[in-house]
Write a structure and sequence with these properties.
This protein has 283 residues and is α/β, with parallel strands linked by helices. The chain is built from ten helices and eleven strands.
Length: 283
């Protein structure tokens, strides 16, 4: 029997409806959540992502603006802008679109953002709070993955979760969030030997390697939950994930598609973090 597909686009739409109501209630109390996105350079993919964030913000009633800067912007100029945004009380969330031009150190920029406005969830303070299991802004893609699992009441506690990929944006934080939910977590990566011996023992398999169709049915345990984070454009121009979807869906119990899978959830979690920032973190 084919796996049940977890459609991220449909789930994101449901969540945005609930957020729209929440934002409306906040506005009645005189509070309008505001997100400022900073885009440096003219990378087409980054521009597309940023425009998607602005559109999604508008759908939920969140106020947003985009500050576009030329590629020639210096690191000092960008840090000065961030400092200004940090002190603007009308701005609740700040997001600097990555990647940045090579002459700007990403970590310096991430650390310059006020942790209470860090709606991307990448500031070391927020990462530390996440690792300690404290209330914080969670990185958006991992947050979206956990939300997808919980939306189908998929058991996490006690399950063996295997993550392929160890990036700071997805791999490492999603493993920590699964650990916080009492899963047993194994990280795999490009240097892992005998990868299949790990993937075939995964109750929950999360694939984030950036290689089209890297995982096939023979790599997956029967009835595993498969979350595909990859977005790859193949020769015919179509998008595909890191998992061979057609093969894997015949063996998995749940699976996410590409597109309409994890991607839409990432932006939705950004909006959720922005609302959280407007309301203020709980202690």
């Amino acid at each position: 029997m084919s796996a049940e597909v977890i459609n991220g686009k449909e789930l994101a739409a449901e969540l945005k409806l609930a957020m729209k109501e929440e934002v409306s209630e906040l506005k009645e109390k005189g509070l309008t959540p505001h997100l400022t996105v900073v885009l440096v350079g003219d990378d087409p993919a980054s521009k597309s992502y940023v425009n998607g964030k602005k559109k999604a913000s508008k759908e939920t009633g969140i106020s947003s603006d985009i500050i576009e800067l030329p590629t020639s912007t210096t690191e000092t100029e960008l840090l000065q802008l961030i400092d200004k945004l940090n002190h603007d009380q009308a701005i609740h969330g700040i997001l600097v679109q990555l990647p940045l031009p090579e002459h700007i150190k990403e970590q310096s920029v991430i650390e310059a953002i006020d942790p209470q406005k860090d709606v991307d969830g990448f500031h070391p303070i927020n990462i530390g709070r996440m690792m300690a299991g404290k209330d914080t802004f969670l990185p958006c893609t991992p947050f979206g993955i956990i939300t997808m699992l919980k939306s189908r009441d998929i058991q996490i506690e006690g399950r063996h979760a295997v993550i392929i990929g160890r990036s700071n944006i997805v791999g490492k934080p999603v493993g920590q969030l699964l650990l916080n939910e009492n899963a047993t977590v194994t990280y795999c990566h490009s240097r892992t030997k005998g990868l299949q011996s790990f993937t075939k023992n995964a109750d929950i398999l999360i694939v984030a390697v950036g290689k089209a169709n890297a995982i096939h049915a023979e790599d997956i345990k029967e009835d595993a939950v498969v979350i595909d984070v990859g977005i790859n454009r193949v020769e015919d121009g179509t998008l595909t994930g890191d998992v061979d979807f057609e093969q894997a869906k015949e063996k998995a119990s749940y699976i996410t598609p590409v597109p309409r899978g994890v991607g839409p959830m990432t932006i939705t979690m950004l909006l959720k973090n922005t609302i959280k920032a407007a309301k203020g973190l709980e202690n």
